[in-house]
Amino acid sequence: MRLIAAPAAALILAGCASFSPDAGAGKVSELTKERTGHAVTFQRSEADADSAAARVNELLKQPLTPDSAVEIALLNNRGLQTSFAELGIAEAERVRAGRLANPSFGFGRVAGGGITEIDRSVMFNVLGLLTMPLANQVAQRQFEQAQYQAALDAVGVAADARKAFFGAVAARDLVTYAEQVKDAADASSDLARRMLQAGNFNKLAQMREQSFQADATAELARARHRAIAHRERLVRVLGLSGDQLAFTLPERLPELPKEPIEAKDAEQTAVDRRLDVLMARRSADATAKSLGLTKATRFVNVLEVGYANKSQTGEARRNGYEIELELPLFDFGSTRMARAEASYMQAVHRTAEVAINARSEARESYSAYRTAYELARHYRDEVVPLRKRISDENMLRYNGMLASVFELLADAREQVTSVTAAIEALRDHWVAETDLRSALAGGSPSTH
Fold first, then answer.
1. Fewer Cβ neighbours under 10 Å: the N or C end of the chain?
2. Same domain, residue pair 395 and 423
3. How many CB atoms lie within 10 A of CB 414?
4. Minimal CA–CA distance to 404: which of 413, 390, 394, 412?
5. What is the CA radius of gyration of the chain?
6. How far apart are CA 254 and CA 72, in angstroms?
7. Long-range contact list for 92-98, CB < 8 A, 24+ apart?
8. Which of 251, 274, 309 is the last residue of a domain?
9. Is residue 201 situated within a structural domain?
10. Cα–Cα distance between 291 and 344 in angstroms, integer?
11. Nearest CA to 177 among 226, 118, 140?
12. Residue 98: which of 62, 132, 50, 56 has the closest Cα?
């Protein structure tokens, strides 16, 4: 009985290992809020789902903004809620590692010749008890890694929502300007046709106007499809359906900031704050702890101690103990050691790769951001005002009968083209800013 006293006590204490009140959601929400400005909600009950749906419907009553799109996505994206289940699995493994394995009960009965013999035994995994603290540390680090992965998924969904929002607003605006080009092309083509019929226009010039009208018609069709595609992309990221599809987009993209972001120590910031880097570090740490566990159990893989008794008809019951031990006759643990060491080196190299990529992506994303910002500012301050002055001058020339109506229509088309390019440049700026924020604090922008 003394042999099983310690395992029995450990079994009682190990049973105290329990699940955390929030299943690790608090840490995930904190990491997400630091990087997106919005907390994330785990929907583990119908009440949680109803509360999230009510908040989503409230946000959809107003025209969407980049922030409201992110909040809706974090509340309503089903794929994100699905990925959160991995956190529950990791916590279950953590709790299991903190509990001693269930004891095994053995029973045997042999009868014959008027004699019945009964064997009984209760076995406890002593090795599991001895290695429990280290196994618990390994499981804890794996649970922390799962928390970082859940936060990384949430930040990725937030980035996708922002980029889908900017794409949808820009695509809707571009349809408006494509319609203006189409209207100008229709007017120019109709005027050319009538002037040709009156003998005041040549056939070649009329066909050129007709060709431009055909191109404008095709481009308008493509622009309308792109607007639908971008809107549906936003719908998927936000997880909307039914009546929620009638959401309203703002009239235009947000204005360009007065000054660009100055990313000081961008590389070090990425290494210190990026979730994929932090997750890789936790993975390497967990693998190192696992290697320590493997070393501790290299020669003894199974060690069980338990209480046993035997009774036989007509004789007093005999009590004793039983030990089961795996003998390292054919495998001295070298294979498990080799596997653990290879896994550790794999984790080390993976961590180094993630850190190198993070530094490179931070530099690349910042360059892309500054380029997009300068281009958007160039179109806003130089190109569009210049096209406006040219248009005003052409109108004066037309009023003074120094320019034809065709020149005036052609200039209107060129002005619309410049405005379209400006909208695209502004959209690219906001997308590049989102990628930069991901590269500095979330994960690889190429994955969003």
1. N
2. yes
3. 16
4. 394
5. 35
6. 19
7. 92/19, 93/139, 93/142, 93/143, 94/136, 94/139, 94/140, 94/142, 94/143, 95/17, 95/18, 95/19, 96/139, 97/132, 97/135, 97/136, 97/138, 97/139, 97/140, 98/14, 98/17, 98/132, 98/136, 98/139
8. 251
9. yes
10. 7
11. 226
12. 132
The pTM of the full predicted model, rounded to 2 decimals, is 0.79
Whether 82 and 44 share a structural domain: yes
- What's the 3-state SS for 29-42? HHHHHHHHCCCCCC
Report d(CA 147, CA 287) in Å as an integer: 17
Give yes or no: residues 239 and 167 share one domain.
yes
DSSP 209-271: HHHHHHHHHHHHHHHHHHHHHHHHHHHHHHT--GGGGG----SSPPPPPSS----TTHHHHHH
Q: Do 221 and 239 reside in the same domain of the chain?
A: yes
Q: Maximum Cα–Cα distance for the chain, whole Å?
A: 131
Query: How confident is the prediction along the chain (448 residues), in pLDDT tens digits per residue?
Result: 444 454 445 444 444 567 777 777 888 889 999 999 998 888 877 888 888 889 999 999 999 999 999 999 999 998 888 888 788 787 777 777 777 777 777 777 767 666 777 776 776 666 666 667 767 777 778 788 888 888 999 999 999 999 999 999 999 999 998 898 888 888 888 888 888 888 777 888 788 888 888 988 999 999 999 999 999 999 999 999 988 999 999 999 999 999 998 878 888 888 888 898 888 888 887 777 766 655 555 444 444 555 555 555 656 665 655 555 554 544 445 676 777 778 778 878 888 888 888 999 999 999 999 999 999 999 999 988 888 887 777 777 766 666 667 676 677 777 778 888 999 999 999 999 999 999 998 888 876 6
Are both 262 and 241 inside the same structural domain? no
The helix, strand and coil proportions of the chain, stated in percent and rounded to the nearest 5, come to 70, 10, 20
The residues with which 106 forms a beta bridge, in sequence order, are 121
What residue numbers bound the domain in which 356 lies?
Answer: 255-298+341-439
- For residues 429 and 255, is the Cβ–Cβ distance under 8 A? no
Shared domain check, 142 and 270: no
Indicate the burial class of 1 (C-beta count within 10 angstroms; 0-12, 13-18, 19 or more): exposed
